[in-house]
Amino acid sequence: MERGMLWFDNNPKTSLMVKVTEAAKYYQQKYGIAPNLCFVHPSMLPTQSTQEGRITIRAFRPVLPGHLWIGIAEKN
Predict the structure, then answer these.
(1) Where are the alpha helices (DSSP H) in 1-76?
(2) What does the domain layout of the chain look like in residue ranges?
(3) Residue 1: per-residue pLDDT
């Protein structure tokens, strides 16, 4: 990830997709660019990866439960 932001939301009533959407809106307001990658703890994601709009959501064990690491994917 070229640029990332850590987002915390441990509200069990809020779905992961809503959390990612809220974090993405804040990220875009703060940095002026829309994020396209979000890492979450594997316990928050039933599969290894999924999509929410233009954002790829991937399981990544170092991210703590309740946290999202959202930003821009590195260009290969």
Answers:
(1) 16-31
(2) 3-72
(3) 82
